[in-house]
Structure prediction request, 195 residues.
Amino acid sequence: MPEFAGKPACTCLAAWLPVFEATIGRSPRWFQLIGDAPASAGFHKGGGSADCEPLTIDEIRTARNMGAAAWYRPWAGNYHTHMRLNGCPHNTIAQPQVADLNAGRDGTGPLYDNAGAPDNGPRDGVQWPLRTWRQGIDWAKEQDMPSPKDWTAEDWAVVQEKLAKPLVKAIWDAAVDKAGTAARAALRKAGEKAK
Ligand SMILES: [Zn+2]
Ligand SMILES: [Zn+2]
Prediction:
């Protein structure tokens, strides 16, 4: 069985979660992927669902745009974010949550009380109805990465930890006066030297 963050996952979660983390730029603490916690009422059996620490509004918006029915659950003693991947075939119990979110509700109705509690958001800046998780991965990969000229000195410090200093300096110098082609030429040059 595939794993993510040391927890058993379905193939959909194993493909989607790394792209989600790369897109939001951090690794949240994951509480439950596949599981059968009593409070989850079957939503996590077999796959397709994930619980993590509370995410920001922007992060929930990103999850939704990536094809996850995601909600902040400010439940007493159990603050978390719940996500259900639209189109995961490994757990059909939770799939109605996607339609519930599309319709503006909080996703608890299909298994709990059908009370139709309203979605606590965000609803702006989200594509409705939700993409499938596969379309969501494609969408995430199409999002613009910041170009070198938009990077801050702090960004470059992080890069410098990972790359050799001369290479970083070459890119930095090129990026400062002419981003793009100059940076690419510098990279090519550094690559030739490394051969
Ligand atoms: Zn959950
Ligand atoms: Zn799945």
Summary: Strands lie at 3-4, 7-8, 30-32, 49-52, 68-75, 78-85. Residues 11-24 form the longest helix (14 residues). The pocket of zinc ion (ligand 2) is lined by residues 10-12, 47-48, 88, 90 (CB under 6 Å).
